[in-house]
Amino acid sequence: MTFKHITSRDNSLFKQLKKLADNTRERRKNNETLLDGVHLLQAYIEHFGLPKLLITAEGESTYEVGALLQELSDVPTVMFTTLMFAELSPVATPTGILALVDIPSLPMPEQADFVLMLEDIQDPGNLGSMLRSAAAAGVEGVYLSMGCTDAWSPKALRGGQGAQFVLPIVERADLVEVTQAFGGQTLATTLAGTSLYGMDLQQPTAFVIGNEGAGLSEALITAASQQVSIPMIGQVESLNAAAATAVCLFERSRQKAASTRGSD
Amino acid sequence: MTFKHITSRDNSLFKQLKKLADNTRERRKNNETLLDGVHLLQAYIEHFGLPKLLITAEGESTYEVGALLQELSDVPTVMFTTLMFAELSPVATPTGILALVDIPSLPMPEQADFVLMLEDIQDPGNLGSMLRSAAAAGVEGVYLSMGCTDAWSPKALRGGQGAQFVLPIVERADLVEVTQAFGGQTLATTLAGTSLYGMDLQQPTAFVIGNEGAGLSEALITAASQQVSIPMIGQVESLNAAAATAVCLFERSRQKAASTRGSD
Which of A31, A44, A243, B73 is 20 to 30 A from B65 in CA distance terms? Predict the structure, then answer.
C-alpha cells in the first residue's frame, strides 16, 4: 500500500475535509460526511458499500486499523500528520481512521407504526444516543425539527454507532404537520401528562420529544393527541432527554413482547 | 454589591480555581468543587446552604444571575474577565455564575433496597445522566468503581442536574465486594442475559452496569447473581450505557407502580 502523504495544512483536500468535519452547511451542500473509527466504517460498508476516500494518520496504528486499510486497498487513501488528523476527528483520542462517504438516504415507510419526532435537540451526542435507542427499539422512522443539530455530524454519528445507517431520518421536518398527518396516536412527552405505563402502546404510536432544556413547544403539545410522562418516584424530577427517550421507546417494546408472550 | 475584580491570570485565587475545575486529584484533596449555573447552585443551597465563594464574569449578565447575586450578597464574590471565567466553566456558552462549594457526603442507607453500581464509566456527561436517572427512579445509593470518572467534576455535575445532592454516592468502591455483600439480587446487564422484562424487580435489587465500550468485567459478571439484557428488536444491538441504565432503573419503577395499582 502506498498512501498519498500530506503534511501541509494548506493542502486543498485537507481544507475541504476540515470544512466537512466542522460545518453542517458544507455537509448538506455536498451530501458528504466523515465517519470516524473502524466500527462506524464497517457498519457503513455493510449497508452501502465502499467509502470514497480513506484518511489515516502518521505514526503507529492499531492492528484493527491496519487490517482494515489492507482490506480496503482499492479505496483511495491519504495520510495526514497526527495533528492534522486530530483536527478532522470528533474525539479527543483519535481512532486512526476516517472515511469520506456520501450521506445515505433511506426511504421512509409509507405507513409507519412506530415513529419518533425530535424537536430542537441541541447536543449531537444526545441526538446520536436517541437515534441509537430508536434503532434498537425498532422505530421505523425519525423526524427532526428545523432546530435539531445535524444527524450527520461526526459527533452525532459517533453517538449513533451506526443507527443512522438503518433508520430512515427526515431532517428539517415540520413536526406539527408530521404529527397531524400521522395515522395513529401521537404522544407528546411532558412533565404533566398521563403515566406512560397506563398507555396502550401496541397501536401505531409516535413519540414526540422536546429540547433538553426547554421541553416541547406549545404548538407541538397542542398538535399531539395526548401528553404522557414517565412517573418519577425519586427526588429529581426530570431525566436527560436521551434517557427519557430510551424509557419511552422501550416501554413499547416491553408491551409488544408481553402481548406476544400472552401474559404480563 | 461590590465585587473583588480580578483581571490577571497570575492571580493565586484564579490559579487555584482553575486547578479545581480541571483536576480530579485537586478536588479530592480539598474536598471542593465548582458548580456552574443558577440551577445547580440553587439545588445545592436548598440542600446544604450557602456556597463558600461566588464567581462571576465581566459584562452583561442575565436577569437570573443578577437576582441570585443580589440574594446571596453575604457570600464573598469575585469577578473575572470573560475569558478567565470561560476557562473555569465546563460549557461552551458559560452561564455567568460559578460557585465554590464543599463536596457534600450523604450517608449510604444501611439496608438499601435499590442500588446502582457503575464500572469504569468514562464519559462525565454519561455518568451525570446515569446519576440523574438513578435519582429520578428512586435509587437509594450508587457505587462507582475505581476506574469511573469523577462524579464531582463540573461536567458530571452538569449532567446530573442536582442528582449528586440527593443520592448517596460511594466513589472508588470495590464493586465485587459490594456485589457480594448486597442483601438482594444483583443483576449484571450484558448482551447475553435473561430478559429484563421477565425479572421480578420488586425484591431488593442492585443493577450492575459496565463501561460504554468494553461492558462489564468478567469478575463482576461472575460476582453478580444473574445476567440480564434489554431485549432489542431493531437492527442495532446495543444502547448507550446511560440509555440502558435508564431503561433498567425505570422498569423497576414500572413494576412497583403496577403492583401498587393491583393490576398489570
Answer: A243
What is the separation of C-alpha B66 from the centre of its chain, rounded to a whole number of angstroms? 27
Alpha carbon distance A3, A54 (integer Å): 10
Query: Is the pLDDT assigned to residue B2 strictly greater than 80?
Result: no
Residue B119's nearest CA partner among B81, B162, B171, B70 is B171
Mean pLDDT rounded to a whole number for chain B: 92
> Given an 8 Å threshold on Cβ–Cβ distance, is A161 in contact with B244?
no
3-state helix, strand, coil in chain B (%, to 5): 40, 25, 35
Please, are residues B144 and B172 in contact by the beta-carbon 8 Å criterion? yes
At residue A79, the 3 state secondary structure works out as: strand
Kindly report, residue by residue over A171-215, the tens digit of the pLDDT.
999 999 999 999 999 999 999 999 999 999 999 999 999 998 889
Instruction: Check: CB of residue B177 under 8 Å from CB of residue B145.
Output: no
Q: Tell me, what's the ipTM?
A: 0.91
Burial B6-29 (b: 16+ CB within 10 A, else e): beeeebeebeebbebbeeeebbee
> From B249, which residue of chain A is nearest by alpha-carbon distance?
A247
Q: Would the CB atoms of B136 and A238 count as touching at under 8 Å? A: yes
What is the least distance, in Å, from the CA of B6 to any CA of chain A?
A: 32
Q: Nearest-CA distance from B202 to chain A in Å? A: 14
| A254 in reach of chain B (CB within 8 A) | yes
Query: Which domains are seen in chain A, by residue range?
Result: 4-102 (3.30.1330.30), 114-261 (3.40.1280.10)
> What single-letter DSSP state applies at residue B254?
H
* Contacting B residues, span 212-231, partner chain A, CB-CB under 8 Å: 230-231
Whether the Cβ atoms of residue A118 and residue A145 lie closer than 8 Å to each other: yes
Q: Which of A42, A142, A158, A239 to mutate to test the interface with B (most CBs of B within 10 A)?
A: A239
Contact across the interface for A233 and B243, Cβ inside 8 Å: no
